[in-house]
UniProtKB/TrEMBL annotation:
UniProt organism field: marine sediment metagenome
Keywords: Membrane, Transmembrane, Transmembrane helix
Descriptive protein name: Uncharacterized protein
Residue spans crossing the bilayer: 23-43, 55-75
Length: 78
């Protein structure tokens, strides 16, 4: 539902892409903040191995979102 509304907003000429960027950047910041809090919690509870797994999972998730965004732009151009 989020991505379909994001697409509708982005299709508005001139101002749509600006609004879409304003919506997407806080999402990335929120994901990074959650990852930071999860990391601190895991360090206190379990140890370093689980922290490494959590950071790796979060990094892969963010890279996937970024690559999807870039590929979406490239396919849109073609």
């Amino acid at each position: 539902k989020f991505f379909s509304s994001h697409f509708i907003i982005q299709s508005i000429p001139y101002i749509g892409p600006i609004i879409a960027k304003v919506i997407v950047w806080p999402f990335f910041i929120a994901i990074n903040a959650i990852a930071y809090l999860v990391t601190l919690t895991f360090i206190r509870i379990r140890g370093v191995k689980e922290v490494a797994n959590a950071k790796l999972l979060t990094t892969v998730f963010l890279i996937g979102i970024l690559l999807g965004f870039i590929l979406g732009r490239v396919v849109k151009i073609i």
